[in-house]
Amino acid sequence: MNWQCVSEPWHEVERRGGFSAKEGLLNWVQDVTSGYSGVNVHNFTTSWRDGLAFNAILHRFRPDLVKWSEVLHRMKPRERLENANSLKFYFLFNFHIDVDVSHPEEKSLTVYISMLYNALSNLEMPNFQDEVMRYRLSAREFSSWLQRAINSYQNTSAYPSERLLAEIDEFRKEEVRNKHREKEQKNSLFFQNLQEKLSNIDVFSVEHEFTPGRLNRLWEDLLDALAARERALGGDVRVDLDELARNLNLQIGITNEKLDELLQQIEAADNNTSHDSVDLIVDGLNALESPIEGFFHDVDVLRSCNHPQANDFYRQVFGLHQRRIAYLQRCQGCLQLLDSSYVSRTERERLCRNKTQIFTQVCDYIQWVEQRIKELSELEFSEKLSDLDSMLEKHKLDHAEIMDFRTTVEQCIARQADIPAEDTDEYCNYLSKLEGDYSQLKKLSTGRMLDLDMLTAFVRAAQLELMWIQEREVIEVTRNWSDFVNLDLSMLQNYYKQLMHEIELREAQFNDVHDQGAALLNQRHPAVEVIELYVGMMQAQWDWLLGLTQCLEVHLQDSLNLSRFLEDVSNCENWFECEIQVLTELSNRRFNYLNLDECESMLAQLKEMRAMMDRYSETLISLSERSRTLSPLWQRGERITTTILVTALCNYLEKDIVVHKDDECILIDNSDLVRWRVQFHGGVEFEAPSVIFRIPPPDTRVAVCLQRLQVLFDRMRRLWLENFHSIRFMAISDSLRKVRSWDLKQFLELDPASRDGLVSALNNDANELLAELDEDDPLSVQLRDELNAANEHFYRLIKLAQREPDPDVVENFDRKAKALLQKLDSSWKTLMQRIADPIPRTADEWDKATDEHKAHGLQALDSEMSMIQELFRQILDPSPMQRALLEQVLSRWENLWETSKMHAESIKAVEDVLTGIVEANEILNAHERTSCLYDYMPSNLDQLRNMHAELLSVQMLLQQQQAVFDDLSSNVGKLRQHVARTRSNVADHYDINNADDDVQELTVRWENICYQVIDRLNLIESATGVLMQYQSAYENENAWLERVEKTIDDLRIDESINPEEYQKHLDLLMAEYRNLTERTEAVEHVNREGGRFIREAKTYDSRISQYRDSIMERNPTLSFGSYSSMSGHRQVAKDLEDFNRRFSQLASVILERRNVIQVWMQSYRRRREVSRKVCLSNVCIYDAVVGQCLTFCFVIIIYP
Question: How many whole angstroms separate alpha carbon 1042 and alpha carbon 1141?
Answer without folding.
Answer: 13
